[in-house]
């Protein structure tokens, strides 16, 4: 037995909050670590103790094993929980914890080593008779060997980083002529994200379901599974929606997949929580994809249908106790669905977004759980993964769970950086998803650039924004007044005042006129429509009003003078009063200025001054929130200047290079 009563959580954000909460509930002393960027983060505030481990970049803080172990020694931590991401699947870290006399709450270094490499793990699974997708996983990593194997496998084919996961270092190739570029790109991204450029190839299984089995092992050789999760709704091979159980699962298929997952775990003497991931095709055949030797982001859906606290179970088996339940005692009740709320711009190719969370109000309600580590007013940093929260709903059946989750998302408020909240609402609202028919092709088949475009503000949203700005201007005016007789407040003479606002709506100027017809009652002319607005109650970034006779509550934010964010019936828009600002120069959209579309690191500049480029050609590569983004030129012409150096950290809008466009 390895008893411990203190746990250091070597992670950040919502997972650190999640682990600390279970640790404290179980009576453990919980210790947090944090970077300079996370000094005011929620996990730091709720921990019993917290230690600063370095600056914002992960390699100087959360990926620095020595700093984490030093923090553990300084605080007397007896065990370390790695969370997920960062060092959670790092065999060297697991061994370093053991060498330092601290319990690593997870599998052994040997298990991590085998399953942390897709090539090695696939070879082991083939030996254990676990069904695998045909592919190439040999040590020879030359381009020639990979290309030759790809010709044998045939297209479509997946190029994958052997190390790591999360969709990074992964490319789909449908034409073998595209393979060399895909290999180079996947290898570069893998080296940047995981420190290893090793690749494997797999035949692409088109339109499969992504189904994973939660397994748990103890130090006495017992291994069980706790059912499955369907994680098919993905974009860029990263999960967006997860649910348990899988909508098409049958008892016989669950038994077969569960037994295969248990066999996989047993083959490496697995201890702790792990996930065996499979592809499930339309004929009911399943194939091993990979094993994650850690707790998964989507573990809450399993907890909600099994009633088990998986983190508490991790603590239990890490101390040497046998599993607290046998396979026949695992029962599934109801249905749970989880969505990942990302700080990203769905209308701009899902690019990561950063900035201050001016307003953050997570939902509450029957069957609703929110795992997050966000504090209102906190800056969402470009240094870390863009996921800010997980919103989970449970219901007696799938229909109830989906309705509850839709309502919860509509009630969620995150004002500041762009988020994928509306996209998630749209996903849950699709009939294909409602019917339980979504596969990994779901997003590509059901969404396009046009359907993902940010919706234009309707007349009512415009009217509310104009009233908010009008009232804010009144308050500023009253605050600046030297004196004001109470009886004269609001007096404007006999002539009705029409206050003029101008918004850019879908690229066109819309003029609005706000007239206060009585105290707190407004008549707004917006783009030819007339909207009646009655102000009832306003507090904490929420206003209760009567809109054309209908009473409702509207979340809002006024981040700066002349700017309003309004969320009406779940749909959010941001409007700027053009009369309060000089119009931004929009003439560069089709110019030769190539700017950074997000905060991030400039990995490569692919051209030099004097080079001729064609419209659509890649000219630079950036990395933001662990993903590579290729910048291309909208014009044909000559590169006249490069304004940023490789390795530079760029802010959104920073000029990378300049091209003189051909006339």
UniProtKB/TrEMBL annotation:
Domain Biotin carboxylation per the UniProt entry, residue ranges: 3-448
A GO molecular-function descriptor: ATP binding
SMART domains listed in its UniProt record: Biotin_carb_C (SM00878)
Names of the cofactor(s): biotin
Reactions catalysed, as given in the entry: N(6)-biotinyl-L-lysyl-[protein] + hydrogencarbonate + ATP = N(6)-carboxybiotinyl-L-lysyl-[protein] + ADP + phosphate + H(+)
ATP-grasp domain boundaries: 122-319
Coiled coil: none
Gene3D superfamilies found in the cross-reference section: 2.40.50.100, ATP-grasp fold, B domain
Keyword line: ATP-binding, Biotin, Ligase, Nucleotide-binding
Pfam family, one: CPSase_L_D2
Domain Lipoyl-binding span(s) in chain numbering: 582-660
Pathway given in the UniProt record: Lipid metabolism; malonyl-CoA biosynthesis; malonyl-CoA from acetyl-CoA: step 1/1
Self-association state and partner proteins as the record states: Acetyl-CoA carboxylase is a heterohexamer of biotin carboxyl carrier protein, biotin carboxylase and the two subunits of carboxyl transferase in a 2:2 complex.
Primary role: This protein is a component of the acetyl coenzyme A carboxylase complex; first, biotin carboxylase catalyzes the carboxylation of the carrier protein and then the transcarboxylase transfers the carboxyl group to form malonyl-CoA.
Name listed for the protein in its UniProt record: Biotin carboxylase
Species lineage: Bacteria, Pseudomonadati, Pseudomonadota, Gammaproteobacteria, Cellvibrionales
């Amino acid at each position: 037995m390895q008893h411990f009563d203190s746990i250091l959580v070597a992670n950040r954000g919502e997972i650190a909050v999640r682990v600390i909460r279970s640790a404290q509930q179980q009576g453990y002393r919980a210790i947090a670590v944090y970077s300079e960027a996370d000094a005011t983060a929620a996990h730091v505030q709720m921990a019993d103790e917290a230690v600063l481990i370095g600056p914002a970049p992960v390699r100087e803080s959360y990926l620095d094993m020595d700093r984490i172990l030093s923090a553990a020694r300084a605080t007397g931590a007896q065990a370390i929980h790695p969370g997920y991401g960062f060092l959670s699947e790092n065999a060297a870290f697991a061994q370093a914890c053991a060498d330092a006399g601290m319990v690593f709450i997870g599998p052994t270094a040997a298990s991590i080593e085998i399953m942390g490499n897709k090539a090695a793990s696939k070879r082991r699974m083939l030996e254990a008779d676990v069904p695998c997708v045909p592919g190439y996983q040999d040590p020879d990593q030359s381009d020639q060997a990979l290309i030759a194997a790809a010709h044998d496998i045939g297209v479509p084919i997946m190029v994958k980083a052997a190390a790591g996961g999360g969709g990074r270092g992964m490319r789909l190739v449908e034409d073998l002529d595209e393979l060399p570029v895909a290999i180079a790109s996947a290898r570069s991204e893998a080296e940047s994200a995981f420190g290893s450029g090793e690749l494997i190839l797999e035949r692409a299984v088109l339109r499969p379901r992504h189904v994973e089995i939660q397994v748990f092992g103890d130090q006495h050789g017992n291994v069980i599974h706790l059912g499955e999760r369907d994680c098919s709704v993905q974009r860029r091979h990263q999960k967006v929606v997860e649910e348990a159980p899988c909508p098409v699962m049958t008892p016989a298929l669950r038994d077969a997949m569960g037994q295969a997952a248990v066999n996989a775990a047993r083959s490496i003497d697995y201890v702790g929580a792990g996930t065996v991931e499979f592809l499930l095709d339309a004929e009911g055949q399943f194939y091993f994809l990979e094993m994650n030797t850690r707790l998964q982001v989507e573990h809450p859906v399993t907890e909600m249908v099994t009633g088990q606290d998986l983190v508490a179970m991790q603590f239990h088996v890490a101390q040497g106790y046998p599993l607290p339940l046998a396979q026949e005692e695992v029962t599934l009740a109801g249905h749970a669905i989880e969505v990942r709320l990302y700080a990203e711009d769905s209308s701009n190719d899902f690019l990561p977004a950063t900035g201050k969370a001016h307003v953050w109000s997570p939902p509450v309600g029957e069957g609703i759980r929110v795992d997050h580590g966000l504090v209102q007013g906190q800056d969402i940093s470009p240094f870390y993964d863009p996921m800010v929260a997980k919103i989970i709903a449970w219901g007696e059946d799938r229909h109830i769970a989906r309705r509850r989750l839709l309502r919860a998302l509509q009630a969620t408020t995150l004002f500041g950086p762009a988020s994928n909240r509306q996209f998630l609402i749209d996903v849950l609202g699709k009939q294909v998803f409602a019917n339980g028919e979504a596969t990994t092709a779901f997003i590509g088949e059901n969404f396009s650039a046009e359907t993902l475009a940010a919706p234009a503000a309707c007349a009512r949203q415009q009217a509310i924004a104009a009233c908010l700005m009008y009232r804010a201007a009144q308050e500023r005016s009253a605050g600046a007044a030297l004196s004001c007789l109470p009886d004269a407040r609001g007096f404007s003479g006999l002539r009705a005042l029409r206050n003029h606002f101008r918004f850019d709506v879908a690229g066109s100027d819309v003029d609005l006129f706000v007239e206060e017809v009585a105290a707190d009652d407004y008549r707004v002319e917006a783009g030819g429509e007339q909207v009646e607005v009655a102000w009832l109650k306003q507090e904490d970034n929420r206003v209760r009003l009567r809109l054309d006779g209908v009473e409702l509550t509207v979340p809002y934010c006024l981040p700066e003078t002349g700017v309003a964010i309004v969320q009406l019936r779940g749909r959010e828009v941001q409007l700027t009063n053009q009369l309060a600002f000089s119009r931004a120069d929009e003439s560069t959209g089709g110019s030769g200025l190539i700017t950074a579309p997000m905060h991030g690191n400039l990995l490569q500049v692919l051209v030099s001054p004097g080079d001729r480029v064609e419209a659509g050609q890649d000219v630079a590569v950036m990395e933001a929130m662990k993903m590579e983004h290729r910048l291309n030129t909208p014009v044909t012409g000559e590169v006249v200047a490069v304004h940023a150096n490789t390795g530079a950290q760029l802010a959104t809008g920073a000029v990378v290079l300049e091209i003189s466009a051909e006339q």
